[in-house]
Each structure stands twice: as structure tokens, then as C-alpha cells.
């Protein structure tokens, strides 16, 4: 039986390219690393790369294209970033103006594509270690919160860190730290364990992005740096044009999750 | 008794700034991370940062200054990269033209300073684990070799990876991999274990840079990516001006070696 879970990344991207798959990519080509996309004009690229370098927890860079090129040579040398994501969002001067399934006409010689690690990788690692991930169990979006933790500024890019939250059983907290520490290039270890107020979160049941999830008796809220951070920060700079993936509609790389483990 | 080993980084940099210390920095402010310096004009900074991002094993970026600023805010916010290294090398159009103890007159608003992790950090970790480091025992420079492993190109920057070699007792090889894997931001795990020819090294007793060291019976040559790589690659681009630290005359940061351990 045909299953999108077991196809390889090249096949997955071909389906996406032909608009045969325009849904979220969770569960597609299982075991292969998926990535956030940010496309910016060259004029902002150095400052944005610097911002990512200074804030590796929320902004783990997996690949950056040469200016004008749509090929992510490190993570998928036969891919095309203009067509290989199921859905894109176009921001003009910091405002979302459009969603579409390709950006061929927008990509000119000034464009630089950034692929950033996403939490799917460490969530698989958690589940493989017997640690359930609540928003997946509840078929919701992960809850995300603005914090009082400032990112390190780089040129025009600055702002607070955004975190995602997963409730973890008290007995699993240490293992969750160990498991996610293995993957520094996809957000790595938690930013905070326990008290949401300590990092400026007033109401854990009202996330700033995504959906609330159930926190059971005996569970601890654990917070990881979130890939929404660089998008939120870039939007504040109000670039003439910026393109990102639509939430959940990620880029599928040729690399396996385990290849990002440092040990 | 006064000992340079036990002074703190601020004191060490003050001595260096006042030309009271113009020798190599090995053994100064023990336990604090030292870094390689590369200074390039802004025009080349994005491509160089991209090169480092694509080649994190030989080019682990610890900090990058804003263009024109000499302050490495992440690793030593009260330091001055123009005076806080004991000795600098000036390259013009790819040729070494000068060595000096400060670069105040060369630093203009176009200059960007890059600090890259150095092997001192993982060498301390090896020794703390009872694994001797031969070139330190023999008071020599570490042997370094050009390999047949190409770096990933970025703009004008390309070239082979340079590696350093440390002979390790057969029984310690696994532990050496574990110990250095903890420190991905200072070169991390070895690139190669065993046969030098596999990575294009013809004669292990004739390094391309540094000094040869003794390899005893029962020892295995183990190779790590080396921070000389980005300098060698940058020199090939022949920038109008490039400044680096003089070999062994490193920048001393405020951060402790252990803070770079991922687990």
C-alpha cells in the first residue's frame, strides 16, 4: 500500500512540486529532517545570518543558498526552494499579503534562502525514547509563547525569544534534557523547565501562537527555543519582501534526523 | 606567588594590552576558552561567515563583531580586538607583510572581526580525561596537514580542509572521540582515525604546518579539523587586507571551556 510516511525525500518533493501534496508535511518521508524556510534579499542576508549565529538555540541554520540560487547544496542538492514546499507565505513590508504554492516569479538574483532546523527532529527522538508529545497526541499545533528572554541583537535584527512548550512527566524530565541535547542543530536542550512566569509567560493556557494543550497532574511544562523566533524578528525589520514556509508546510531535506545527533 | 595560569581573562587581556605579555597564550588564564582571530573587510564578511557556517568542523564561529566594532559582545564584552591579542599578522593581497602587537590604525568602519574556536579547549578536556597530548609533552607546535577533503565552497571561499594530528593510545581512541564530541564549537569529534593516506596525507612525519611529533608503538594517529583551514582558504582569495592572530598568540575570552560542552 502506498504511504507518504515511507516515501523518500526526492519522491516527496516531486509530489509537492507537482502540487499533488499541498498539506502539512508532518508524517511525510518519516525519519528525514524537515526545515523552516526564510527567504530574504541579499541586502539583509549578512545581518540575518549573524543574528542566527548569535542565537543558535532559536535559529539553528542548516543551510544557506548562494545569493540568487534556489539550491540548498548541503541538505538537498537536487531540490528547488521555489517549488519544493507545499505552501509559502509572502510578507511585504512586514505584512502577510499572500499564500501560494510556488515562488518562481519572486525569486531573483538578490534572493538568499535560509533553512533552519525545526522541532520535528527532536520530537521524534522524544517519542522514540518513550516520552509522549502532547500536541501530537491531541492533534494540535504546538503552543508557543513570547518570553522576556532577549535575543542577542545583530544589526537591525532584535527581539524576544519565542519558545514552544511540551508537558513532560516528572520522571521523564531528565531523559528529555538528555535526548534533546543530542540535537543542538534543531533547537537542542530546553531553555527552561518548570515555572512559566520566570520567563515572562503570564498564562500557560493562552499561547501567543499555536494551540493550548492539556497539562496533566504530575507533568512539568518544559520550554524549548522555537523557530518562530527568527520569523517574528525579521518581520519587525519590515523587509520589502520576505518569504517563509506556511506553518507546518516544511521543506523536506535529504538528511536523516539521526545525522544531526552530536553523539 | 603570581602565576599567569590563575589570572582571570580581564587581567590577562590588560597585561596583553599593555604589552606586558607578548608571548604565546597557552597556559594563560587556564580554564578559559581561547580563540583564533580573522579580521576581514565587510565586503567579504557575508561570504566568509557563510563559509564558516557550511564548514563548522574546521571553522567553529564563537563570535562576530558588528562591522566597524572591535567588541566581541558574546564572548568578552569589555575586550578590544585591536589591542587584546599579544601578536597580530597582517596579510595584504594574500601575502604576510607584517607582525605587530596592535592594529588600532588598521581598524576602520569596514572591519569585521571573527573569533573561531581553537583546539586548546578539547586538548584540556583530553588531558583531564587522562589522555596525553603529544605535542604539549614535547613542547612543539601541533603537526598540521593539508588533506584531500574539500571544504564546502561559499562564494569566493574554497579549498581543502587542514587537519591537526594527535597520536592516541589504541585503548584511549574511543574515549578521545567521546570527550571531543562534547565540544562541537571547538572542532568537535575527529575527522579521521588511523590511515593518513585515506585523507591524502603522504608522509605523516612531514606536516605542512607546525612540527612533527613522535608516534609510539601502539598509538593511532587521530585527525581533527583545524582552525588553520579558514585562514588558508581566506588567503587564497587574496583580500586587500586581512588580519589574523600570530600562531599561538590567541584571544582569551571570558567563557570557560566547560561552557562549550553540549552535554
TrEMBL record, chains A, B:
What EC number(s) are associated with this protein in UniProt? Answer: 4.2.1.-
Does the keyword Lyase belong to this entry? yes
| Keyword annotations from UniProtKB, A to Z | Lyase
Please give the Pfam families that the UniProt record associates with this protein.
D-Glu_cyclase
Q: What class of enzyme is it?
A: lyase
Name the InterPro entries for this protein: D-Glu_cyclase, Putative_hydro-lyase, UPF0317
Q: Which HAMAP family match?
A: Hydro_lyase (MF_01830)
The record's listing under NCBIfam families reads: PRK05463.1
Recorded family membership: Belongs to the D-glutamate cyclase family.
Name the record gives this protein: Putative hydro-lyase B9L21_06285
According to its UniProt entry, this protein's organism is Geobacillus uzenensis
